[in-house]
Amino acid sequence: MAGRSRVVLHRWRVAVATATVRSDLSDPQLRTCLTAINDLSRSFLELERLGVPPNSIVRLRTEQGSVHRIVLRIYHIQGTEFLPSAYILVQSIVTLIITALVFARIEPSYEAAVLLGMISYFFMYLVKLLKRSTRRSGPTPRPRTT
Prior knowledge:
The chain is mostly helical. It is built from five helices and no strands. The radius of gyration is 27 Å and the shape is rod-shaped.
C-alpha cells in the first residue's frame, strides 16, 4: 500500500509541474515551473526504491532535462521583444508608399483606384500581420463555469 501512495505522489508532482508550465505561460513574470520540474527528482529516487528498472529511471531523468531545457527556451522567447523603432520604420514606409500612390497620376482613374486599393490593402495587411506576429502568445483562458 505504501508503494501505491508513492506512485500517487509522483503523479501529483507531474500534475503540479504541468500546471506550473501553464501558469508560467500565462504570466511571464512567474518562474515557478523550474522548481516543480526539479521536484520530480525526489519522485525518481522514490521510484528507484520501489524497484523500477534503472534504464526507465535514466529515461525519466533524460526527459526531465529535456523539459527543463524547453522551459528555459520558453522563458527566453517570452523575454524577447520586437524592436519598436523597426515597427515605426515599417509603418512610415507603408504610409509613404500609400501617399505616393495617392498623388501619382495613373490613367484611367478607375485603374488608379483599383491599383491604389489593392496595394494599400496589401501593405496595411502586412502591418497588421507584423503586429500580430509580435504579440505575446500564451494559453487562452478557459471560460469559468459557475
